[in-house]
Structures are given as C-alpha cells and as structure tokens.
User: Fold this.
Amino acid sequence: MTNSSLRYKKILLKMSGEVLMGDAPFGIDTKTIEAVAEDIKEVVAAGIELCLVIGGGNIFRGVSLAGQGMERANADYMGMLATVMNALALQGALEKIGVNTRVQSAIPMDAVCEPYIRRRALRHLEKGRVVIFAAGLGAPFFTTDTPAALRTAEMGCDALFKGTSVDGVYTADPKKDPAAKRYDTLSYHEVLSKDLRVMDASAIALMRDNKIPIVVFSIRERGNFMKVLKGQGVFTTIA
Ligand code: UDP
Assistant:
C-alpha cells in the first residue's frame, strides 16, 4: 500500500548513535530504541522502502581515542564495530514488533549479518524489508555520513533523511544561542560555504552531484518521522 500523500517512495534514514542513548550519557537506552522502532514501523507500513544507517557515537568514535594517542585507523575500525552493535540493537527492536529487517555490513561478519551486496539489498527493499547498513564504508578516516550518502545514491533513494535531536538546520547551535534561526530550505552550496556542519562535506557534495535532497528533522519527537514524510511539521530541506 503506497500512501499518495507521501513525498518520497524510497529513502535512507541516517541517525547518529546518540539518538539511541535517550537521556543517558552513553550506550543504548531500550525505551528510546523501542520508540524509534515504532516510528520506523509506521513509515514501513505506509509503503515506503526504507534503508537505515546508524552511527556509533553513543559507544565509540575513532577520533576521540585518536585524540588520546591511539592510532587513528585502529580507533576508526573500533568505531565501525560500534555501528554494527547499534544496527543489531535496532534490528532486534524492529523484529520484535514485526518489521522484517536485514543487516548488511561493509566489513564481512558472516556469523552476525550479511555482507554488503548492492543487488541483494535492492531485492530486500523490494520485498518490504528494512535494510540496515552497518560498519560504514568499511574504511577508516570517515564518519557514517559519507556511507549514508553513498548508500542513498546506490539504492536509488529519492531522499536522504537525517534524524537528529534538533528539528532542522539553524544559523547557530540553538542549544547555545537563543537567537539562532531555523532554515526551512538551504542549497547544498549554502551548507558548504557557510560551513553549517549538518553532515560531512563529502556527504553533502555526493548528494549535490546526484541531485538527491537531504531532509533534516528531529527523530526525538514520536510520530515526527511520518509527519515529515507527509511534508508536515518542522524540518529543513537541503536541495
Ligand atoms: N567509521 C569509520 N568509517 C566509516 C564509518 C564510521 O571509520 O565509514 C568510524 C569512525 O571512527 C566514526 C565511528 O565509526 O567516528 C562512528 O561513526 P560516527 O562518528 O559517524 O557516529 P555518529 O556520530 O553518527 O553517532
């Protein structure tokens, strides 16, 4: 069943690992992950083909340990493994409420999940399964933004959704500056030239070159994912 009021048919949702922490300072909060899973279920039930990329910042970010003297590449591999843990956690929460999923990892881990195979991922999507892409690009010196953009393009998605803890892109950090204003729309060029730090520049450039819009919204408010897909509520579109 495809809902004609929806703006897109096939999308990729990128969430930072921090979304899964809830109000905790670290790790995965079960209640939060269950709530996110419910929002995802609603979107899948509306007939959207959905892929997911989750970061690992709630567990581990390579750049932090590199700052304390660990070799950067090694720390980044640890970060990629953290994204696999988050992918499995979200897979568990989704399957528990009846959403079919597959996890595909850019670093092959046969005992845990499927390896990333583009054509197989496309087939899963056609069958209504949610595909969760884990382990980023399988290469260090990246965050999960660039793999999210790459998979968006590879899967032929109509849009890249970025679910964060704020409801769009602001002129300044709204948590620190009460005068910060939210943009309704932005061009890729504005994001890059104003250095707005929505996502890594390589991810923005990839979306620009492939003319795929980026929608930034708050995944913290329940039901908001579906609302934004219908073009309602508060969000920023970069196109
Ligand atoms: N990472 C990497 N290559 C990739 C994707 C991720 O090396 O292609 C590592 C990197 O250390 C990164 C960590 O995995 O910091 C977790 O991802 P990210 O920082 O994007 O998590 P988020 O901030 O979205 O929670």
User: Anything to note?
Assistant: Residues 104 and 120 are 10 Å apart (CA to CA). The chain has a mean pLDDT of 95.
